[in-house]
Write a structure and sequence with these properties.
The protein has helices at residues 7-39, 42-64, 70-76, 82-114, 122-129, 132-147, 153-178, 182-210. It has 213 residues and is mainly α. It has one domain. Helix 1 (7-39) packs antiparallel against helix 2 (42-64). The chain is globular.
Length: 213
């Protein structure tokens, strides 16, 4: 049965637009993940988290193009509401975030079996103490959309990558500095990331309708 829903076509366009950069990013994730499993180096673990949850979605957004690119001008020329275009971008990158989260969780699970001493209290504790890492993906997306209306595309991508990456690394340090439980700090950072992500959607929706690209 044929459908007039334009979302399917937009998802297809997004897939063809981003698949090359995503495959490159995925290859990097696999290499770093295997290197971490082989060496148990903490720096490689941090890189694995950052590539799964931050680099992956930021690369996807870069593939979709910035407001200064021709991709947006092509999209808005189609007989489709701009709200659909924005929804397609958000839903596409959320799907990519889910894929990154699955890879990260699988990596932590495998590591907790191979390297029992790396995560002191096992798999469940590792997830609980690093739940903020999953929020970093949402923070990266939120920042990318919010900043894309005021900064050049390349600078937006850099900020959306570096800020969540630094926060992800320093959450344990912040917890120690505040003399607080790392679980509480991690959950708080996740909550703030979700709030910024939701705000970014509604702000982007307003700006997207007004933008002339």
């Amino acid at each position: 049965m044929k459908t007039n829903n334009p979302m399917r076509g937009l998802f297809t366009l997004t897939y063809y637009r981003t698949r090359n950069v995503l495959l490159t990013s995925l290859a990097g994730i696999v290499v770093i993940g295997l290197a971490f499993l082989a060496t148990e180096e903490e720096i490689l673990y941090n890189m694995f988290v950052i590539f799964c949850m931050i680099h992956f979605p930021v690369q996807a957004l870069g593939g979709m193009g910035g407001n200064e690119g021709r991709w947006e001008r092509f999209q808005v020329s189609m007989p489709i509401k701009r709200s659909y275009l924005l929804k397609a971008q958000y839903l596409s990158v959320i799907f990519i975030v889910i894929c990154g989260a699955v890879i990260l969780t699988a990596g932590i699970a495998i590591s907790s079996v191979i390297h029992e001493d790396f995560f002191m209290y096992g798999f469940s504790s590792a997830i609980a103490s690093s739940v903020h890492s999953y929020g970093m993906a949402l923070l990266a997306i939120g920042l990318a959309f919010l900043l894309s209306f005021i900064l050049p595309h390349t600078i937006t991508g850099f900020v959306a990558f570096i800020v969540p990456s630094l926060i992800n690394v320093f959450v344990p340090v912040i917890a120690e500095w505040l003399n607080a439980s790392v679980y509480i700090v991690s959950a708080s950072v996740l909550f703030i990331s979700i709030v910024i992500f939701v705000i970014s959607y509604f702000v982007s929706k307003v700006m997207y309708e007004k933008s002339d690209f």
